[in-house]
From TrEMBL, chain A:
It comes from Rhynchospora pubera. It holds the Pfam family PhoLip_ATPase_N. Mg(2+) binds at D431, T433, D876, D880. GO terms for molecular function: ATP binding; ATP hydrolysis activity; ATPase-coupled intramembrane lipid transporter activity; magnesium ion binding. This is Phospholipid-transporting ATPase. Its EC number is 7.6.2.1. It is a multi-pass membrane protein.
From TrEMBL, chain B:
Pfam families: CDC50. The chain crosses the membrane at residues 48-70, 308-330. Keywords: Membrane, Transmembrane, Transmembrane helix. Its main location: membrane. Residues 1-31, 142-163 are annotated as: Disordered. It comes from Rhynchospora pubera. This is ALA-interacting subunit. Belongs to the CDC50/LEM3 family. InterPro entries: CDC50/LEM3_fam. The keyword Lipid biosynthesis does not apply.
Amino acid sequence: MARTGRRKRDRLRWSKLYTFSCLRPSVQLETSDTGTASLGGPGFSRVVHCNQPRLHYKKPLKYPTNYISTTKYNIITFLPKAIFEQFRRVANLYFLMAAILSLTPVAPFSAVSMIAPLAFVVGLSMAKEALEDWRRFMQDMKVNSRKVSVHRSDGLFGYKHWEKLRVGDVVKVEKDQFFPADLLLLSSSYEDGICYVETMNLDGETNLKVKRSLEVTLPLDEDEVFKEFKGVIRCEDPNPSLYTFVGNLEYERQVYAIDPTQILLRDSKLRNTQYIYGVVIFTGHDTKVMQNSTDSPSKRSRIERQMDKIIYILFSVLVLISLISSIGFAVNIKYYMHNWWFLQPDDKDNKLYNPKTPAISGLIHLITALILYGYLIPISLYVSIEVVKVVQAMFINQDLQMYDEEAGIPAQARTSNLNEELGQVHTILSDKTGTLTCNQMDFLKCSIAGISYGVGSSEVEMAAAKHMASHSDFGTSEIEIEPSTPITPVFERVRKSTIKGFSFEDDRLMNGNWTQEQNSGTILMFFRILALCHTAIPELNEETGGFNYEAESPDEGAFLVAAREFGFEFCKRTQSSVFIRERYSPSEGPIEREFKVLNLLEFNSKRKRMSVIVRDESGQTLLLCKGADSIIFERLSKNGRTYEVDTTRHLSEYGEAGLRTLALSYRVLEESEYLAWNAEFVKAKTSIGADREAQLERVAELMEKDLILVGATAVEDKLQRGVPQCIDRLAQAGLKIWVLTGDKMETAINIGYACSLLRQGMKQICLSTAPSDPTQQDAKKIFLLSEQAAKENLSLQMSNALQMVKLERDPHAAFALIIDGKGLTHALQDDLKDRFLELAIECASVICCRVSPKQKALVTRLVKEGVGKTTLAIGDGANDVGMIQEADIGVGISGVEGMQAVMASDFSISQFRFLERLLVVHGHWCYKRIAQMICYFFYKNIAFGLTIFYFEAYAAFSGQSVYDDWYMLLFNVVLTSLPVISLGAFEQDVSSEVCLQFPALYQQGPKNLFFDWSRILGWMGNGLYSSLVLYFLSISIFSSESAFRSDGQTADMAAVGTAMFTCIIWAVNIQIALTMSHFTWIQHLCVWGSIASWYLFLVAYGTASPLISGNAFQILVEALGPASIYWISTLLIAVVCNLPYLVHISYQRACNPLDHHVIQEIKYYKKDLEDHDMWKRERSKARQKTKIGFTARVEAKIRHLKGRLHKKLPSITIQTVS
Amino acid sequence: MSSSLASSSNLDGSDDTSPQQKQSKKPKYSRFTQQELPACKPLLTPGIVIGIFALVAVLFIPIGLASLSASEAVVEVIDRYDADCVPNDMHGKELDFIQNSSTNKTCTRRLTIPKTMKSPVHIYYELDNFYQNHRRYVKSRSDKQLLQPSKEAETKVCAPEGNTPDGKPIVPCGLIAWSLFNDTYQFSINSGSIQVNKKNIAWASDRSHKFSKDVYPKNFQKGALIGGGKLNESIPLSEQEDLIVWMRTAALPTFRKLYGRIEKDLNANEEITVVIENNYNTYSFGGQKKLVLSTATWIGGKNNFLGVAYLTVGGLCLSLVLAFIVLYLFKPRTLGDPSYLSWNRNPSASTD
């Protein structure tokens, strides 16, 4: 019975300690309660029979099972749905039509040559879809088959798969397990029915939340008692709101109101609590987390959508020339056919060519022509793009510089069809926790008795220091932050200690040295506050013999670790006491001291402080208080302000460095004073009524005054490696970065500072609704009223802010918009959202805090649709799934926080910093590659396809092609496909280092320089020109009017067609060689190999039986090869085709070079090595002017300093904090 | 959205997280996967641009001159005879004339040789407005039948000239063969006849591999409609070179086909008498018929276009060379000059 033993140990009555959040409406519901008045009405119809899941097997109480499915298809729907998806592509539909028609005799080609490529393309895409869906299915299966302990009958519990869970089941969830469904908490291992929940997956918040059961269900804390348990829950219908719940419990003939604090949501995790019992209320897709999820949309890149438009244009051209063809055909049939005796026009079986019915012939011919000119619309384009994207994705997956050595996870392109979109991103929407930060707090610095300790510095400080060192004269305004290679950030902090949560370095305090310090008494107090003022529980780590702490928030954990390292190890908590092992010097043994905890006034976001009242072994009663500096400072006693000035200065330094600060203080209590207060406190605590909370706060307020300031702590919310640098460079690449976090505003702002998204001197626009406290549960009427007022208030705030931004004249002024979830609720409404967006765009950085997953998605949509540019959302948790799916590109951080974000994402990386390489290198390359590839593809097919059309005019529009069927089939499949694939897969305008060094190059993507209409039309014009040259020069030279060989033979159709086709092969391959700027052996092989393969094919085809090759038999060896005119015409036409393009690019490079041209030249002439300074200078200029990020911050600082120097002001002035 | 798997850091959702497997996820280094393959990065420097255009000019102008002179060296005699070979009384009734098998279609023409024509002199007939490239026409042949005696019944693709009305397969079948050109020419000079060599006018490969020496014409031109020429049924197809040449369909509606060769020099100002059997009907579609005598050089027959095109392009490139020299002189730009970078050219543009 080891379990019961452990259980006993945990039987702490937390409610004794907790003052606020364990308030429990101990009486049954008053009927006047507005929240539940509507139960049973529409929207509130759910009835749950606790412990009687059987009642839910039948209607009307039959609710969905706990089985979840996130797949797009199932076995039955896969084929129809996937095929439908495939044929939503215009081109595929056209090819399908063509393939069907190719089965009829009107087709100019054989059916196989039409159907096979289509089947290949569609099959490939469908196989990809199927694979992706299979992965999702396996993921679902894994979740569905997790096990949970469920009450079976007679007080016996057994394990069941999650998917078997029904509404009404009683489950027992153990520590660190996820809740399988939305539960009503009945009881926990703690006697007073509280439990800790981590809601990371729901809202990204890292603080543990305290949930508490109803008083009445407290006795239900043994397996056996569920034998008899019965109750009915009436509550709201499934809805996506995570923070509300309306319902009541009918138990033992009484009705109790249930509020959100009794509800445990699926996908949150039980922490610090051995077990809980709960009743399933919502299952499967009814759960709040599932209600928050949205269907994963199929995304298509911007380029692909634009490509569709080109396809439409080409389709129109196709229809046009087909119409011309068929009209020409009909005219020929009508007026000339009867003259053409050699065609036997009067043949009775002749329907297609019957001169009596030219209209019918024309119509039938229209179909023939549509198929014949189908080469204008390249089916192989899709195959090639798929192939290229797979290769590109492979490069992303294989990139060692995006491989996380520690986690062992490489980057992964989960969907390959968005590669090029990576090069066009305009706005990045980022989650905070787990994405920017590691969700780990490190104790970094402290200020005790007015002296700042801790020599470690945050990343911002290091950058600034580095800069100051390298530019000791402030003569130049160019700021050089060494971009270096991204894999080894220069600023990587080398830390001596590897203790998690502790990065403090200062020998003055370590190893007991603090006893030598002047104010050792104050330091002692400081350490005691760290060790005592918290709500954590120690847990013995059996491996190391040390303690781990299970704290509500990571800060607290960091404090305890720090205290431990300073020699104040918190080792035990009992119902009423905290035990500390104190060790004053390393040589001494520890002394265990007991501190009686008399009261605990815990933290909430309104109070912004927490206090404990303890009595030490000597009987002295102390109030220890830690809290936000402003709160603490206003509660200091007159003689407690000794260190206020120094501490304030330190605090502002810490804040600027992006550290989270708390001020620590204490107060010595007289016994009588305490007793008097405690009496009042107990009275308040046991009072009944709505104002109890207010009373408690008022009483707590009485105690938390006349404090003596001890010092302040600075904790670093540890950023992931390289995050500030990455943000800096992304900002320099011209990207906008928004942070959307579920966390508190203060935390978000801290991180804003740490990432340099915020800095001093930036004007912060904080949009929030009138200070309404979250615990407020007023009557609905007032609520509605205030809702309206809040909205108006917000609207006013936004107008004012906008006014201010618009009137700002200082070019260096930067604004930051900070908005919380409540504000966002209003700001996202239709009438305000445009103004909100306008304001947000004007601001350099935007931080949204306390946003729900749904709001994240809504903000993403607002940006996506409002700005009309590409958005990228990056996040790691389930709460980011909505935004990841909503954004044009979703990137998941494959960290430790589960897989939902990754599963929903299009790309996954294991660290935020890899985003830079993903976008600036891979995105840039992929964008250019795909854009060039598509342009070239259209060029190539226009050049080829139109020659077929021109020939028709000379062949009475009969639908005969001058080329052999095989040539045409091979044109796209073999002869020109590999060069274009090599262009799409391997082209590099500049090397990856240069991409990283010149972030401005990235802007070529968002500005869409390589796929705008002028460029597309230019390429199409080039195709048109080439087709004209190819056809008319060939025909003029090879016109069968005179012999083409020295022995007098004239050219027949096969010879003309083959010669013309040779010219096409040369022309398009030389064209692609001119397009490429990067030749590895692969490109050489592909381009020159394609040309060679054409001749090889001709030889091989010519050697095959004439039954296969027809008139092409021996054509190269016998007919064309010995004819010099064949070779010199090829030379002429290939040159003429490419001459204008060559002139164009030569002229452009000479007079109007693009950035990458100049950089290519610099690299070519190795100027970067000769003239280091120039290279460095250009690199720094190549950054987009930005107001966020490191560099901007350092610049701002320098401006500030320069301004001061200019004014010859004394160097020490009080820094302005705005 | 599904519940998370805190324990699993795998991307593919599989269960294994042992260190070894983690290690194996590390991409292997290769210059290919890291996109670091050695590459040549050619650059269009002014030197190269001018060099390319100069090279083209230097290459093209001689070729153009050479081919132009070769073309000029070709002596060509063209005689259109379709109109003149209709008796005067039949003008306006050319169709009746040509379709009536009893009329005398012999016609005598005199040609003057303008310049000495070195042997061999190629004899061509040229037709106009004849759509040998019409789809109905092109498809109407059976290669199998021509090659294999056993496949003589494979005439489906030859419709409407596959079988005789009584169902026997026609060899060679199809519209192409059926419309075989059948004018004949006889040359004489000063009343001495000139031998026309009709051997080797077709491709050797056609004779050896496409038209079998075991297949003989059968049921040819026996149907209701008589198209063009008839074939001697005792000569195998491989030796029917006129047919083989005809079956090589022309790409354009105006075409010449080799008729034969005169293997003797024709001197300047000599007058040649040609006796033409004007059998072939081009009158119904208004096509011209021409007799062409031509010599050939290394570029084949007369082809001024090629030379002119080469010279034009060569000249164009020469002017491009000049244009670019002027451009580089007047708008010089040091390659790799950073002042041309967009942020240096219009600094305001990069301010976002």
